[in-house]
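Course assignment 3, question 2. Fill in each field.
Student: A.L.
Task: Predict the tertiary structure for the chain below.
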Amino acid sequence: MNAATADGRQARVLAGALRNWAAIDTDETPVAARIQIRQPPEWGFVSTINITDQQTHRLLDLLRDDLAANTPHLASPERAAAVIDDLITQRRTEGHTTLHVRDLVHAAPRIGRPASWIAAHLGDLADAGLIEETWRPGLFRIA
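Answer field:
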C-alpha cells in the first residue's frame, strides 16, 4: 500500500471532487443517491455527497464509458466494429490484398463478439462497398 492510500489522501481528494461536481450542477430535483466516502486504513468517514437523479445518471454514464474503454471484451457493437475496421486497415497497411474471416477471429475474445458477428460485419462492409467479396465464401478483397 502506498503512502497516499494509507493516509487517505485519495479518499479526501475524491470526496472533494465529487462534492464540487455535485455542487456546481444546477439540478434542483430531490436527492436520488448518497455516496459515502471512507478512507483507509481504518476506513474512517470522510464525507457524504448527495446526488440527484440526473447526476446519478451522468455518473453512471461516465463509469459505463470508462468501463467500455478499458474492457474491450465488453465493447459496444460500434466499438467492436471500430476494432475490426482498425485490424483491416492494419492488414491493408502491411500489404495484404485479401482478408478472410479467420484472419480476424483472434479479435473475437477482445471485442466480446463471436466469429459469426465478425463475418456479418465483413458482409456489412462489403455491402457498403468498403471491401469486395470474392467468389470464395468468407474471403474479401481489401485493396
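Instructor remarks: The first helix runs from residue 3 to 6. The helical segments are 3-6, 9-24, 53-70, 77-93, 108-111, 115-127.
Grade: pending
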